Amino acid sequence: MEKQYLSGFGNHFSSEARAGALPADQNSPQRVAHGLYAEQLSGSAFTAPRHHNLYTWLYRIRPSVMHKAFVPMKELTAKTFTKPQHFNPNQMRWNPLNSAESQDFVEGIRTVCGNGGGEEHRGIHVHLYSFNKAMGSRYFMSADGDFLMVPQRGSIQVKTELGIIDAEPGEIVLVPRGMRFQVNPLSSGNCTGYIGENFGSPFQLPELGPIGANGLAHRRHFLAPHAAFEDLEGKFELVGKFADELWSAELNHSPLDVVAWHGNYVPYKYDLRKFNTINTVSFDHPDPSIFTVLTSPSDTAGVANVDFAIFPPRWMVAEHTFRPPYFHRNCMSEYMGLIYGEYDAKTSGGFVPGGGSLHNVYAAHGPDAETFEKASATDLKPVRLSETMAFMFESRTPYRVTDYAMKKDFLQGDYQECWQGFKKGFK
Fold first, then answer.
1. Domain hosting residue 175, numbered range
2. Which residues are designated catalytic?
């Protein structure tokens, strides 16, 4: 049966998997129906302004405090969530992460680059994932940041405290900071993709200004899950990420035992193919900010902690214009990934699905030499860019890279060569 979802970004939802489990009036009555426990999960300070206040009331079989002490997982931390340490001003590009090792979602994560951290409540870390087995009795939670997952190959099922979300390449899933969840494969072979772990203010829809009411991502296309619970007993493990380190705690039950809930601090998914692209119908380029799906604002108006932008299928019709992305140097730092297809600024190869690139603060970038020659000579008829989906995590702060990101079989050492063939045309 097709899954049903609750629709609307930032809305206050309510859902129950057992009739009568939601209290009619009070959040925490003296006795909750069905012998459940009332518990609040807060995504913001209690005193945050109403339009920024994030919380969800959970009505669960056991309180979430019911686990044994956390113990450090130093070996798994060193393999997965390694801390970005090295600043590098060079343009960098990576091959896809595709491990043949049998591993679950947590074991298959590798950190590439990032800035800030959970202790600072700012910045983002960019991780890749590659896994091929279910998490079984293991569950995960990041106390550091929200997990924005971008599947690139293979469909995944994200089981959360609030319900279940299925996603395929072309869709994204966000699990809020502090929420417990599992990620399992829904297809054979390796599931690969990207994760943006946002430590700053929660993602929100960007303001539209003169675009008006109907452009970019629409709030009704963001889908939250209906309540679904696991009433399982036995030996289970909760892996928690605290201050960039993993810790393990033993439980005697599944932590996904929420029977009913209401609130606005929820996991959600969004289909990037529903993005209403805005573009030029005359000449020149609008700024790439028109492709912003979600933004995490900073304390400086108009300057993002992180923007999540996409470059989806669209028509190119600009007249008398060099149509690929222009040559550029930016005060923001840009990590790019490719979900499928070909990116129109890199048509000579190297930037492939599952791979990534980093153009750090003021690192010059733009189309490669081959793309420049083609675009400079082509007949400017309307062209449809189809079957393509690239994305960008753009941040105000320079990215540092991990030791893993500098590995020779992962980092493309010849990336700068794609710009060395430009001819001198000036006379």
1. 68-254+266-272
2. 285
